[in-house]
Amino acid sequence: MTDHRLLSLQAELPGLRLLTDAADREHYGRDWTRRWTPAPLAIALPGSVDEVQAIVRWANAAGVAVVPSGGRTGLSGGAVAAHGELVVSTARMNRVLDFDPIDRCLTVQAGVPLQRVHEAAQQHGLQYPVDFAARGSCSIGGNIATNAGGIRVLRYGNTRQWIAGLKLVTGSGALLDLGRGLVKDSSGYDLRHLAIASEGTLGIIVEASLWLTEPPPPTKVMLLALPSFEALMQVFAVFQARLALQAFEFFTEVALKHVLAHGAQVPFAQQHPFYVVTEFASDPASEAAALAAFEQCLSDGLASDGVLSASDAQAAQLWRLREGITESLAKYLPYKNDISVRLSAMPAFLAETQALLGHEYPQFEVVWFGHIGDGNLHINILKPDALALEAFVADCERVTRLLADSLQRHGGSISAEHGIGLVKKPYLWCTRSAVEIAAMRGIKAAFDPNGIMNPGKVFDAA
Ligand code: FAD
Ligand code: MLT
Ligand code: ZN
Question: Residue 206's domain is classified under what CATH number?
Fold first, then answer.
C-alpha cells in the first residue's frame, strides 16, 4: 500500500481492515448492474460503529468520497465505486444484537443478511416479512438504504414499514440514533425516514431495529396461465375481491423461457403468453375462495389454466418460476426498468407502455415481470451478444426517456423498489418535481456538508 491517503488512514486506525488488491477492488466496486468499471481507491471493512465514524471523519479531512456497501445485490448502480472512492463495506458488522419480546423488536448490525434476519425472527416465533430472491446475499443496511420491496409488499408493505429505529453515521461523522423503537413520536421531522431510501447519500446505516410480526400462516401458491395482458388486472380484481392475498406476481412466456433454460420446471403442458403466481393462507375458506376466483376467471375467459400447490415443495417450485427470473437474465446484462403506477392507472399505463416498447424495441428481447399487485413492473431489455454495451445502453436510455414522459403523465415512479443509483438518475425529474429535488439536495447538505457520501448517485451535486 503506497497511496499517501491510505497510509494516513491506516496510521489513524491501525486496526482497520483495508483491502487494496485488484481482485478485491473489482469485487467490491460493482453491484449486479455490471455496467461500470470498478475503480475504488480501497475497501474498508470496519468492525465497529467507532471505526465507521473515524473513517468518515478521515474521509472528510482527506477529501475522499465514500461508497457504503452492503451485499452489492443492488440493481441501480448505487454501490458502484468507479472513481477512486473508499468503499465502506458492512460485511464484518454482521451480528444480531438484541431481541425485545415486549416491543417485538430485533436489533441487528447493518451487514446482517436478510435471510439471517428471517432466521432470527423465526427463532423468536415471529417473522420479518420483507422477502425477495436476494435474501441470502443482500444486507439489511442495503435493504433500508433502498427501501427494498419484494414479493409480499401487497400484504406487508415494504422495508420502510418495519424500521423501528436505526443508527446512522452521517456524512460529517456524527452518530444519530433515530426512531428508537417508539411506536408514537410526534416530536418533529422523522429523520429515520430520510435515511430510508437514501442510497448511502446521507451517511452509513450501522444498526437497525426491526419490528417483527406474527409468523406467516401456512400458505398455498396458485400458478395461473392468462391469455392476454388485458386480463392481468382483471384477474387481480377477481382474486382480491374474494380473498386476502399475500402476493400477486406476474411474468410473461419470454421470462418463463429463460427460467426454464435455467433449470426450473413448469406444470403446464401448453405454452401461454402470461402467468400469475399468487399466494394466500391455506385455510379451507381461502382455498375455496381462490378456487372460486379461478373458476370465475376461467369462465370469463380471463384465465386458461391453473394449478394449486399440493405441497410446500410444489409451492417452492412454483415460486421458483417467478423468483428465478433475475438470475436467469443476468448473463444478458439487462437494462432494467423498475417502475410503478397506482393500481387504478395500471390498465391504461400497461396498454400505452406495451405499444411504446413494441414500437421502440423491435430489435431487442423485452422481458416483463413484476409485483403487479403493487403496481410495480420490471421490464428488462436484453443485450444482444453482438451489440456493444455502450450502444445498447444508449438505445435503452433513448426509450427510457419516452417511458419517463409516460410515467410523468400517469403519475408513476421511475424506481418502485430498486432505488435511483446511477441507472435512473437521468429520469428522477419524471417522479420528483424540481422543488422536491432541490429540497433533497438541501437535506443532503445538512447531513453531508462536504458531499463525500456516495457522490453522483441519485442526483448530481448542485
Ligand atoms: P447494495 O447493493 O450493497 O447497496 C445498495 C445501495 O444502498 C447503495 O446505494 C449503497 O451505497 C447503499 N447502502 C448499502 N448499505 C448501506 C448502509 N449500511 N448504509 C447506507 N447505505 C448503504 N430489490 C427489491 O426491492 N425487491 C426485490 O424483489 C428484489 N429482488 C432481487 C432479486 C435478485 C436476484 C437480486 C440480485 C436483487 C434483487 N433486488 C430486489 C435488489 C437488491 O437486492 C436490493 O436493492 C437490496 O436492498 C440491496 O441490498 P444490498 O445489501 O445488496 O445493497
Ligand atoms: C424481482 O422482483 O425479481 C426483483 O426486483 C429483481 C429484478 O427486478 O430483476
Ligand atoms: Zn422486484
Answer: 3.30.465.10
Is the predicted pLDDT of residue 1 greater than 90, yes or no? Answer: no
**pLDDT tens across 6-15, in order?**
999 999 999 9
Model confidence over 81-131: pLDDT tens digits?
A: 999 999 999 999 999 999 999 999 999 999 999 999 999 999 999 999 999
Based on the domain organization, do 338 and 384 belong to the same domain? yes
Mutate to test the pocket of ligand 2, among 138, 147, 326, 336 (most ligand atoms within 8 A of CB): 326
DSSP 133: G
Residue 443 lies in a domain: no
Please indicate, yes or no, if residue 368 is contained in any of the structural domains. Answer: yes
pLDDT in tens, 267-289: 999 999 999 999 999 999 999 99
Say whether both 394 and 418 belong to one domain.
yes
Q: Is residue 316 part of a domain?
A: yes
Nearest CA to ligand 2 atom 6: 326
**pTM of the model as a whole:** 0.98
What is the H or E stretch that residue 68 is in? strand 66-69
Q: Which of 267, 291, 326 is the last residue of a domain?
A: 326
| Residue among 381, 378, 390 at smallest CA distance from 360 | 381
Number of domain units in the chain = 4
Ligand 1, pocket-test mutation among 56, 89, 132, 161, most atoms within 8 A of CB? 132
pLDDT tens digit string along 417-442?
999 999 999 999 999 999 999 999 99
pLDDT value at residue 281: 97
Same domain, 100 and 203: yes
Q: Do 70 and 108 meet the contact criterion of CB atoms below 8 Å apart?
A: no
In the chain, pLDDT over 70 holds for what percent of residues? 100
Q: Which amino acid is at 53?
A: Q
Ligand nearest to the CA of 456: 1
Ligand 3 centroid to Cα of residue 376, in Å, is: 8
Q: How many other CB atoms sit within 10 Å of the CB of residue 442?
A: 10
For residues 23 and 113, membership in a common domain is answered with: no
Report whether pLDDT(2) > 90. no
Closest ligand 1 atom to the C-alpha of 111? Answer: 18
Ligand 1 site, residue 447, Cβ cutoff 6 A = no
How far, in Å, CA of 111 to CA of 96, rounded?
Answer: 10
Domain boundary among 167, 184, 211: 211
- Residue 355: give the domain boundaries: 333-436
Q: How far apart are the first and last CA of the chain?
A: 34
How far is ligand 1, taken at its centre, from the CA of residue 228, in Å? 32
The answer to whether 102 touches 118, Cβ cutoff 8 Å, is no
Q: Quick check: CB of 326 below 6 Å from ligand 2?
A: yes
What pLDDT band is residue 462 in, cutting at 50, 70 and 90? confident
DSSP category for residue 139: B
- For residue 31, is it within any domain? yes
Q: Which atom of ligand 1 is nearest to 149's Cα?
A: 25
**Domain check: are 315 and 344 in the same one?**
no
